[in-house]
Design a protein that fits this description.
Number of strands: 18
Low-confidence stretches: 1-23, 99-114, 289-304
Number of helices: 2
Structural class: mainly beta
Radius of gyration: 24 Å
Strand content: 35-45%
Largest sheet: 8 strands, antiparallel
Order of helices and strands: HEEEEEEEEEEEEEEEEEEH
Distance between the termini: 12 Å
Shape: globular
Length: 304
């Protein structure tokens, strides 16, 4: 006697097959870090707090001889945030996540990059997503700009490990956003000297995007492989503001998050997260579920 496959089993197999159909865009995600500045097993600090049990932390430093960091309790859903008081304008800070050099992050280096960097692998659709929550402590009374980006610090001797080291050999991508009383505007750029210094190329810009209040905003920089290069995208509160494609010299290795404002106003940030998304190619062959569907139909004919 040949056993008939139930309609329920055939339907389940078909659903599985459809989810694996080409274009289904299955993906594998890796979180490189997610710094929340919460008290996990100890006191939250600006440093990498892995000794206190927070394995998702990174370490933060100021690039110049200005500014101080303080962990503050913002209340609400954000809890703790890291506050930076620049003291003057154009002070850059760096969040360092190179595993093998400075910050004790448990993510070890791999054969593909050799030093624990975050990597954007070749392959259409593969991407890195850098996101954070951000707010100014007070309204900015004049037109200013705010920049943040993802870079590889190529300075001889390794990445930043202390304040006031003055590293400028930062290669990567960043977003700029108008703030204060400026008109709406944003841009994405390729940087060979962090935020400018004669080493930036604007990839795209738009008359959209502005922070003129003290509310908490969500910011995201996305680097995604496309057919012609790396598409750099900037989102404010989950809405795309501007994008542009680096078609000539794409960067793929990163170990530093950098932030800079042209204002001296204090600001806070939280939930600094770097996500790697790898697209999993769908099978080129006929999905197995359709084979089961055919088998069920064949058994049904035999039963008759």
């Amino acid at each position: 006697m040949v056993r008939l496959i139930s309609k329920r089993a055939v339907l389940a197999a078909t659903i599985v097959a459809m989810s694996a159909w080409p274009g289904g865009a299955a993906h594998a995600d890796t979180v490189y870090f997610n710094d929340t500045f919460e008290n996990i097993g100890g006191t939250a600090t600006r440093d990498n707090d892995t000794a206190a049990g927070n394995t998702a932390d990174i370490a933060w430093f100021t690039n110049g001889n200005f500014g101080t960091f303080t962990v503050v309790n913002a209340g609400g859903a954000n809890g703790n945030m890291l506050e930076f008081s620049p003291g003057t304008s154009n002070v850059r800070i760096a969040g360092v996540f190179d595993a093998d050099v400075s910050d004790n992050n448990p993510r070890a280096g791999t054969a593909s990059d050799g030093d624990g960097n975050a990597v954007l692998p070749v392959g259409l659709g593969n991407r890195l997503e850098l996101s954070m929550d951000f707010r100014f402590n007070a309204a900015i009374p004049n037109p200013r700009a705010w920049n943040f980006g993802l870079f590889e610090d190529t300075t001889a001797g390794g990445v930043v490990t202390a304040d006031n080291l003055g590293h400028n050999a930062l290669l990567g991508y960043y977003a700029s956003l108008n703030t204060g009383t400026a008109s709406a505007g944003s841009s994405v750029s390729e940087g060979t000297n962090s935020f400018g210094g004669g080493g930036s190329t604007t990839l795209g810009s738009a008359a959209s995007g502005l922070i003129s209040d003290t509310a908490i905003h969500t910011l995201k920089l996305v680097l995604e492989n496309v057919a012609t290069g790396i598409n750099v995208q900037f989102y404010l509160d989950n809405a795309l503001q501007t994008s542009g494609i680096d078609t000539t010299s794409p960067y793929r290795n990163f170990n530093t998050v950098a932030i800079q404002t042209t204002s001296s106003t204090n600001y806070r940030f939280d939930n600094v997260k770097l996500l790697q998304v790898i697209v999993v190619p769908a099978p080129a062959a006929l999905p197995a579920g359709l084979g089961l569907l055919s088998l069920g139909m064949m058994h049904r004919r035999r039963r008759r």
